[in-house]
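note to self — DONT lose this again. spent like an hour looking for the file last time. sequence + predicted structure for the chain T wanted, 184 res
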Amino acid sequence: MKTLWGFIIGFVVCGICFFLIASEVYYSNTPRSCMSCHEMRVFYNTWKLSAHGLAEKGAVRAKCVDCHLPHTSLSGYLLAKARAGLHDYLAHFSGKMNTPEKWLDYVKQREMRETVKPIAFDSGCRQCHKVLIGNGIPLKAIKAHKAYLLGETKKTCVSCHRSVGHGDIVSTFTELTRKQNKGG
């Protein structure tokens, strides 16, 4: 009888833990959740004005997690979400990324490296953009997409479509840094 009660209590506790974790994963999938840290507000504001943000009429609205987490498997998604969350949490509380100047340095350093860990994942783009070669697509894009689909290039979606998520983020951080250094 004790074993049965232990099993029931354990099952209930696991169910409650699962519900709490699932609700946090669900809540943290929203742009508003990502913007809750002040460091991310500039990304939220630039996303709102981007091709997949709130300003574009008729375009696909992409949430942060649609681009910034891989969509190849549930375990990969959850692991990347946990890593990104821990990274952002540590960066927030350490002050590592708390000014536009620090973000600008980070973005410029990423651009200079030949290989970098992705910030945006092709699997997210491909969730919506399934047809890369077809009617209405310019010839230059067809050639680039063909090379991509055949694995003849190491370029990613964001290599060519840099401003789709946040516009010209380097210019934005440059302007914010200039204003900060002027004291305004």
